[in-house]
Amino acid sequence: MFLFSQPIETARLTLRPFSLDDEADMLEFESRPDVARYLYNEPRTPENNAKELAARTTQTVLLAEKDALTLAVDLDGKVIGYVLLVWLSEENRQGEFGFVFNPEFQGRGYATEAAAEMLRIGFEKLGLHRIIGRCDVRNTGSARVMERLGLRKEAHFVESEIFKGEWGGELHFAMLASEWRASPLSKAEDATA
């Protein structure tokens, strides 16, 4: 079980629960076709953005499997993306993490910096044995982030599903708790303490 109790401060970012005040920042990037391209949702409208934001404000605790922790990534008072951790299996101690960022802030290491904290929560706070990450094979930026974090590519599913009207493939990455403990990222100052 993990209850998010205070913001996580990294070198440049604050990871915190979403609030209703984040609506404009969230819509700024979630309404973009290039952001929704590799996600299961379409670009958000003001109406469905508000509904999604309301749901995210409640995703601050991992009490049981299938629960999701979703945190806003705040850069100097502006939400530039979000990170999430889903508890997939309590018995097998499995989780899945992900990240979505405003393209205006990509290429500066923010996704790697924020996503590392979700791995830290999963392994060090929730006691997970294995965390996976998935992305569309065309999403080379997300694949590079997962590789930088030290996850290994375990699978490349070729044309495995019809995604937004066309055959799509998916890459699966994973990391074990033992690999996390051996990672330089785990040796960094624990920002969640």
Automatic annotation (TrEMBL):
Superkingdom: Bacteria
InterPro entries, sorted: Acyl_CoA_acyltransferase (IPR016181), GNAT_dom (IPR000182), N-acetyltransferase (IPR051531)
GO MF annotations in UniProt: acyltransferase activity, transferring groups other than amino-acyl groups
Record-annotated N-acetyltransferase domain positions: 13-178
PANTHER family attached to this UniProt entry: GNAT FAMILY, PUTATIVE (AFU_ORTHOLOGUE AFUA_3G00765)-RELATED-RELATED (PTHR43792), N-ACETYLTRANSFERASE DOMAIN-CONTAINING PROTEIN (PTHR43792:SF1)
Name of the featured protein: N-acetyltransferase
